[in-house]
TrEMBL record:
Catalytic reaction(s) noted: D-glyceraldehyde + ATP = D-glyceraldehyde 3-phosphate + ADP + H(+); dihydroxyacetone + ATP = dihydroxyacetone phosphate + ADP + H(+); FAD = riboflavin cyclic-4',5'-phosphate + AMP + H(+)
GO molecular function, one term: ATP binding
Domain DhaL, chain residue ranges per copy: 155-328
Domain DhaK, chain residue ranges per copy: 1-118
GO cellular component, one term: cytosol
Catalytic activity, EC: 2.7.1.28, 2.7.1.29, 4.6.1.15
Entry-linked SUPFAM superfamilies: DAK1/DegV-like, DhaL-like
Organism field: Lasius niger (Black garden ant)
Matching InterPro entries: DhaK_dom, DhaL_dom, DhaL_dom_sf, Dihydroxyacetone_Kinase
Protein name: Triokinase/FMN cyclase
């Protein structure tokens, strides 16, 4: 709605900054008939109650999305220009800079002014440094060392990755809903970006060498997930890759994968500070790893079924769990 309570364009459910910016830019770009290779000046107005962090996220999304459409934001102005009783909202305004008048507008915008709230300064010129998507970046080929897999094993590995990623994508909304109970409601979206990154690169991954493969997956996690999750997943797979690289061909694969799993889990506990009993994903991973170690000695026929069952058991144990220190 408008700053004076005017009716808005439509009512929608609360979405992420990315979704809302996409919706707003779509309407504006259509109204201005913006196309690839056009240039614009942008004003982002804070209604009064958005934090600087939130406003920065919106500005970042606008710049990234415009550049993804090959529309260059030549100037970006962000600030508290017109408030509405400290409402939590924002205005996004675009000025189309045509070939004939663009330079004139820029000259006027860059003129010095005594207007107290005008945010124009050197920071209104967006950085020319852009982040290159992982799939388009010049990637350093992972060193193919350690054990190697035969063609049948590679097909199995590829199938497992594909099915796991598809399951994550399918459960995005459900995971987000679970995360809203104790977090910011984006766990599913974060994991989906990771899964999509793997699926988009699946045919180019080093399936023949697990150590190289885990290194590549670690890079995808770091590039696509972002935040703490990206760092932790990257640590887990990087540590696992390093452990896999130390084994020689012909060693027992179940033992090799256990060592990689345990090594990655130990790294998560070291740097993430969470332990079994803290009601985190570590509870599921630790239960699975513990059962894995037990079954290495037993070698049962239902090896993978028991691993899956133990993973669910570890997950379900968090339902009534209290933080460590309160369990006694």
């Amino acid at each position: 709605m408008g700053v004076h309570g005017e009716a808005g364009y439509e009512r929608i459910k609360l979405g992420t900054a990315s979704v809302l910016v996409t919706l707003m830019l779509k309407r504006i770009c259509e109204a201005l008939s913006l196309a690839a290779n056009d240039s614009v000046a942008v004003i982002v107005n804070n209604f009064g109650a958005l934090s600087q962090l939130e406003q920065g996220i919106v500005v970042h999304e606008i710049v990234i999305q415009l550049r993804n459409m090959n529309i260059e934001p030549v100037r970006v102005y962000s600030g508290v220009l017109m408030t509405s009783l400290n409402s939590a909202g924002m205005h996004v305004s675009l000025l189309k800079l045509t070939e004939s008048d663009g330079d004139v507008f820029i000259k006027c915008l860059d003129e010095e002014t005594t207007a107290p709230c005008w945010p124009g300064c050197s920071y209104s010129i967006p950085s020319t440094v852009t982040r290159i998507p992982f799939k388009d970046a010049e990637k350093k080929e992972a060193e193919k060392i350690g054990i190697s897999l035969n063609v049948r094993e590679q097909r199995l590995f590829k199938s497992c990755l594909k099915n796991a990623c598809a399951a994550i994508v399918e459960q995005e909304a459900y995971l987000n809903e679970l995360d809203r109970g104790c977090g910011d409601g984006d766990c599913g979206s974060t994991l989906k970006r990771f899964a999509d990154g793997i699926l988009n690169n699946l045919d180019n991954l080093s399936l023949s060498h697990p150590a190289a493969l885990l290194s590549e997956i670690a890079n995808i996690a770091e590039e696509h997930m972002g935040g703490t999750s990206g760092a932790l997943y990257c640590l887990f797979f990087t540590t696992g890759a390093k452990k896999l690289a130390s084994f020689k061909q012909g060693e027992n694969l179940r033992h090799v994968w256990f060592c990689a799993f345990r090594s990655g889990l130990n790294c998560l506990e070291k740097y993430g500070k969470a332990r079994a009993g803290d009601r985190t994903m570590i509870d599921t991973m630790d239960a699975t790893c513990t059962m894995y170690e037990i079954m290495l000695k037993e070698y049962p026929n239902n090896f993978y079924d028991r691993l899956a069952a133990e993973a669910w058991k570890g997950c379900d144990s968090t339902k009534d769990m209290k933080p460590n220190g309160d369990n006694n």
